[in-house]
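Kindly draft a sequence, keeping tokens residue-aligned:
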Amino acid sequence: MRHHHKTTVLAAAAVAALSLGLTACGGDDTAGAKDAGSAGTSKSAPATTESGAASAGTADQTTAKGGSGSTGGSTGGSTAGSTTGGSGTKGSTTGGSGSSAGGTSSTKAPACASGDIKVTAAKADEVPTEHIVLTATNTSGRDCTLLEYPLIAFGPIQTAKDVPAVAKSKPAAPIVLKAGAPAYANVRIALGGAHEDNKVVNEFNVNLFATDGPAEGSIVVKSPAGGLAVDEAAAKTGYWTYELRNGADEF
């Protein structure tokens, strides 16, 4: 009896354990199923997300296309605008060129005649005086072109020796003088101090160039106070320039 009871108890315990095991397994399966269901839901959620993303992507593409179309329109407008603007810019450049051309055309102003110009002379700041500076002022009331260099005669025009020009002082472009504007020329009149060949000059003549050679008429220029000691053999002149330049107008 005791053995049977023990067997019965053991069997009951085994059944209970088996039941608990099955319950536990059933619980695990349920949890697993729940987890699987959750996982399935999670998996389907990304699918939904991907689907949504795909839809959004499609919408984005549609928007992008529409936007591209709008942008294309804007861009097209901008491009056209830019092109037009570019053309406008080119137009401005052309206008600038026109201005340059205007400047260039202004260089086609007629050659200054002797009656258009007043010439004065001043001694250079040096001892003894070897150079003078000629200033030519446009008194004509209109633009004129001062060509080449001053044709100087230190004495009677018919007998005076021509004063040669220094090539390095020639400017790159003709000198166009507006009304009232000046131009300058550096002139060497002697080398060193008193010399037996020097002659005192109280006034001298300056001629201008026309487009086809020396212009008619001459301008009488008064020498600075005390006159000028001129050595015609050493005399040289620079070209007319807007301002005297270091190096180019030094000789």
About this structure: Helices lie at 2-106. Residues 98 and 119 are 33 Å apart (CA to CA).
